Amino acid sequence: MGGPDEGRGGRAGGGPADAELMIAEARKAFFVMFGFLVIVWLVQLVNSADHYALSRDYGVVSGDVTTLPDVLTAPLLHWSWDHIESNSGPLFVFGFLAAYRGVARFLGLSLLVALSSGLVVWFFEQGNTDTVGASGLVFGYFGYVVVRGIFDRHLIDTLIGVVMAASFAYLLTVAVPGTPGVSWLGHLGGLIGGLLGAWLFRDRRPSGSGGGTAALAPRAPRPGADNPRADLHKELGDLGLL
Fold this sequence. Notes:
57% of the residues lie in helices and 2% in strands. The protein is an all-alpha fold and 242 residues long. Strands 1-2 form a two-stranded antiparallel ribbon. The radius of gyration is 21 Å and the shape is globular. Its main location: membrane.
């Protein structure tokens, strides 16, 4: 994408603050996901050293009321090194893409996805199965990233969603019944939570109609028509970058 000085005259100097804000949010998202992965791997070290006692004690077991609080701990636990390795890459990629528009919103999304994934397992999983793993979060972040741009009306996020959907559509094959060795219900529950989160945490813009209720999160006022940055601000807004 071209710099702010490109284009017709009178637009130079517009938008650097917005670009810097996006970069700052992306930097925070990177460190949040890096820190989260460090925690998950440290837990795995302790867990494997204790013969996966943490997974047995803090996983979600369908119908067992005592394991309901464990819907929040199960995403941090795994059953093997192969298990955590297969989750770590997608977790970082989708988590970063979900977080770069705002870390606070991302934390709310993570809580929602953990709850939806864990509760679907708790209600519908068959047998005395102890379910753990971050794959529910992976599917939640995936679903969120794919549809977020539609709800937020951000062109860039919509394009990212299309690319992610096309590149990782195969993930949906392990969110359907009959997949051996995985908790497809946990995947499906996470996906549902991510799609719901995209709507719940969407940008709420002013409706623009007279007499309507005040917006929940109004955006900063646009520059006046006589401001040299007005045209650039409008174009960036139309592209979904503001």
